[in-house]
Amino acid sequence: MMLPPLLWLLGAGAVFLGTLAFWSSIQNWLADVIQRTRARLGASADTLMSALVIVDRVMVNGQRVIAATGRAIFQNEGEEPVVIEEVRPLMAEELPADVRARVEAGEPISYELSVSSMQVHHVPTYKLAVRRTD
Amino acid sequence: MQTNGCLTAFLSFFLRLFGIKPPIRRTTEMIDVRYREYVDVWVSESLARWLHETRAEIDAEQAAKTLLGESSRFPETAAQIREALIDAKVTFSQRDGKQYLEIEAYMAPRQLNGKQPQILRWHAERAINWTEIPDDVRESMIRMRQPVTLGYSIPQ
Questions:
Q1: For the whole prediction, is pTM greater than 0.80?
Q2: pLDDT tens for residues B10-69?
Q3: Which of A3, A83, B9, B53 is 20 to 30 A from A124, comparing alpha carbons?
């Protein structure tokens, strides 16, 4: 009996997702098999190893891209940002000349110090604002 | 310098047919750099903590920054590290279907009162995901089927 094409597609998708999810174990097993049968495979063993390295790059970079995308989409939704405000009075003389000139002209000044998109290790985002108090 | 893989070349050719010029290789390298940094940070923070425990005058935070490549900002700390850190090596291995990142370091405490020179050995190990291992290390692990050890040098 012929299976409908959609079922084939779903099956292929499920196999691909399973391979992606358990890639670490699968590559370990495949590399072991190639290593153990090296004598029987001869020159093909090196070709198979190279093929495994290429597939590994594709799988791992795919997993990394999925993880980075997931972080970018879901990170801001579930987490409340931690805001810590610290106010430090400064003498006008301590400010750099250009900043001082802008403050004295009544301009608001703020700097955003950005962080990496991946956030492999936690780095906070800083916002520095300079205001004039009389 | 790594050579282009055939899959990358094939994908680039296919996408160029449609007028798209994707920097696939550059993108995957940029992603890999993030994971290298992830490993570097753990190694540097471990070494910095041990350096502080070996010689209390070494500030752990400054030492970590120095080991992460900011030695020009802390020349004094860099000199102290060069004096204290004898050798270090970082090893990636696979056991029972899991991957491990291991660091081993040898350090010299300050010698006092003419005592015999003493060397301290520090060691730490942690489990690491396969995806967190940099590309070239994974390749070596697949091809050689044995632990991959990288020498460690203090960044200049």
A1: no
A2: 556 555 655 555 555 566 677 788 888 888 889 999 999 999 999 999 998 899 889 988
A3: B53
pLDDT digits (tens, 9 = 90+) for A2-28: 668 888 889 999 998 888 889 999 999
Q: For B18, which DSSP code?
A: T
A30/chain B closest Cα distance in angstroms: 9
Q: How far is A113 from chain B (nearest CA, A)?
A: 19
A28 and B34 within 8 Å at the Cβ level: the answer is: no
Is the ipTM above a cut-off of 0.85? no
Chain A residues touching residue B7 (CB < 8 angstroms) = 54, 57-58
Interchain contact B26–A (C-beta under 8 A): no
CA dihedral (A110, A116, A120, A121) in degrees, to 10, reads -30
